[in-house]
Design a protein that fits this description.
Elements: E1 5-9, H1 14-25, E2 30-34, H2 48-58, E3 62-66, H3 72-86, E4 89-94, H4 109-137, E5 140-145, H5 157-176, E6 182-189, H6 197-202, H7 207-211, H8 225-236, E7 247-250
Parallel strand pairs: 1-2, 1-4, 2-3, 4-5, 5-6, 6-7
Length: 270
């Protein structure tokens, strides 16, 4: 690798943890950060010790710190720590998110504001903090973790609005910083039934309830954090040098508003 560090928000638990470990296993030094206290509608808490223990056992270049992605000073502190340790940034992954369910009628203004603060203000603050450094260094990579809810889903009014905004921000960043050689893309974990801190938090930790009616993926299983991590690793690699402004589906239909594929008999002629 080129010596640059990758910073992963929400990178200490769940899908973010898998992204962190996958990137580190590919050779990138990774600084993961998140909050240790459980957030609304999430199962994630006290995750840093376990992440560092696994990374240490596997000999992976992972460091971690506690910080709130919605707080400008704390985001600045994370980026400064990454630069102090590694000299430059190879990329960032905006993964931190919260996703309480609800319509506009049962989502109070305070909760709406918190969802927007984490899911949309957070990526904005991260981009604002790193773009100048990346531009001076000749380029960099930003990967935003989106959701099919970003095109609208029932009972997810605030979460859907935040993820829709993240898709728009992805496109705007890609256009604005094209000539700075900063590639900006989004990945979408799809297919339903994905066991993550946020998705499990919505169903009280009940995996069976989470997966009831979920279609999964064309691989015949549910999308995993490793699947998502491999997609992020591709976008961070030189193989994706010319890709920017793209939404990469990881699972089953980026929009997830598509009709569910019809089942067919294995004996039916193809």
């Amino acid at each position: 690798m080129d010596g640059g560090c990758i910073v992963v928000s929400g990178g200490t638990y769940g899908l973010g943890r898998d992204i962190t470990l996958t990137l580190a296993a590919r050779g990138w030094p990774v600084l993961a950060f998140g909050l240790e206290a459980r957030q609304v509608s999430s199962e994630a808490e006290n995750a840093i010790p376990a992440l560092l223990a696994e990374a240490g056992a596997r000999g992976l270049p992972v460091t971690a710190m506690e910080a709130d992605v919605s707080d400008e000073a704390q985001v600045t502190g994370v980026i400064e720590a990454a630069l102090a340790a590694h000299g430059r940034l190879h990329g960032i992954v905006n993964n931190a998110a919260i996703g309480p369910l609800g319509t506009v009628l049962d989502t109070d203004p305070g909760l709406w504001d918190r969802i927007m603060a984490v899911n949309l203000r957070g990526p904005y603050l991260m981009a604002r903090a790193v773009v100048p450094h990346m531009a001076r260094a000749g380029g960099g990579r930003i990967v935003n973790v989106g959701s099919g809810a970003g095109w609208g889903k029932p009972n997810m009014a605030a979460y859907a609005a935040s993820k829709g905004g993240l898709f728009a921000l992805t496109q705007a960043l890609a256009l604005d910083h094209f000539h700075d050689h900063i590639r900006v893309n989004a990945v979408v974990p799809g297919g339903g039934g994905i066991a993550a801190g946020m998705s499990l938090g919505r169903v009280g930790g009940d995996v069976e309830k989470l997966r009831a009616g979920a279609q999964g993926t064309a691989a015949g299983r549910y999308t995993t954090g490793e699947d998502l991590g491999r997609a992020v690793a591709f976008l961070m690699s030189e193989d994706a040098d010319v890709i920017s402004g793209t939404v990469l589906d990881v699972g089953c239909f980026a929009r997830q508003g598509s009709s569910t594929p019809l089942r067919r008999s294995l004996t039916r002629e193809i």
